[in-house]
Fold this protein.
Amino acid sequence: MRFHLVPLARLLPPAHLLPLLAVVALLAVPPPHGASGTGTVADAASAVLVVFCAVRVVRDRARPLSRTAAVVLGLPVLGICAAAVASHDPAASLPGVARYLQVFVLVPAAVVLLVRDRRDFAVVAWAMIGLALVQGTVGVVQYVTGTGASYQGEDVRAVGTFGATDVMGMATVVAYGIVAAAGIVLGSPGRRPRTWALVCGGLLLVPLVVSFSRGAWIATVLACALLLALCGVRRAVRVGLAAGALGVVLVAGLGIGSQLVQERAASITQVAAAPDRSVTDRYTMWAAAAGMWRAEPLTGVGLKGFPHYRDSHASLALSSGSDTAGAGQGFQRQPLLSPHNMYLLVLGEQGLLGLLTVAGSWLALLVCALRRLVDSRWDGLDCGLVAVGLLVWQLVDFVYADIGGPATVLTALALGLAAWWALAPPEPAVSSPPFGFRGGPPPAPCPVPRGATRPESAPGTGTGPVGAPATATARAGDGSPSAGTGAGAVPPGRDTARRATVRGGAPKQGVQAPAPTATTPGPVPRATAPTPGPAPTPAPVPRAGALRGTGGPHG
């Protein structure tokens, strides 16, 4: 039996994307001993990714960052380093410097350098959807079997492989998959990728619901609503009505988490009247972060300084911590080490300088991404919608969460995809969609070498060699130039000096007219042997696709 290896080779990802795809794949590995911080295999893979990209750039000088990309991606370095230097304990701030540079500078820059074109972008986007399906499947099984994290006394909260100490991990991954699938459905011109993305997005709605993450719900709804609005108001209304009907069927009809989901959704509107314990703690920590900024308005209290200064700025309404249990872990009290708001965390620890540089970089990415999406004119709309959707989701989610946990490295990859779309130079349009499953664009036509001729045309067509029609021969003795041009002849309308000489006028100043040639009466043959002498300078051959009779290579 004979096997065809070419189609299989086309299905394999490019070699330069393997370190990036390894980071996505290793996010499915559970953290060691249920740890919720850094030090996971995915973080180690991200370090390998940065080193690989740096070595590749230094060795090959493959794709250095443009000036705009270097400024936008390097802007957070100013605020991060200033906050670390001005910190009361610079040594304690060093881990925070490494973490911030990893998430907001190094990994996004590596993604921008490694992703070459829209097809590479599509490979990474589908990898994120695949990871979301894996984590979502684990989360649904946890909800159905009662082996998830503890929620209101029941082990039903879907957390995937991230454990009870990182309840936002699976929700973040699944939300990324939904937003990426929505971008493909709305922007891809191919029917097959749209169908697959629609199926994947519909399946991922179930684990997102049973994650009971209100921040992920809000960010997903707003990001998808923005993508729909960018594609047209009518489509947004139709899809919104269909999504509402689907939600009613899933919750009210099939009873998927009906009571718990309804209570969780209703708590979103009760943040002011009767907030629960988590909302009260969040408000208190927000006020504590604002108090730290008022104490150190320019550079903040320093990276990793929020836990140290929290109690001195928080009110008595703050609890001692949150209770975590389930998903294979026993009961433990988890301390509140961040305000669960990325903007206030940056403001409290890095001050106004850090907020302007870090958040300013995100805002610049959003503006550039939206501008390129508008300028694309439906060419590459799928990649643009995915990038804008991921960036908008993250910026909205930062209102309710911050960096921390194993899933943070995926946030860096999402920012890198958004940065590639916003900052990478636009590539020429391709004939096949990047999210499809076909081959690349057809090869460009081979140009005809300068001075080459084509075979004689068929009888009766009235054409001779390349670019020389039948009217190219002139009557002898009339002094008129040839009506057509051959290969290497001067195209008509370009040699003003020759026309002036033929008509009897003097050539223009600074233009040397060719020496007149003697002609003898009688017809001139179609092809004559060249006389010895200096070879004339051939005129530039017009571009491919010139009209017939103009001397172009396709005349």
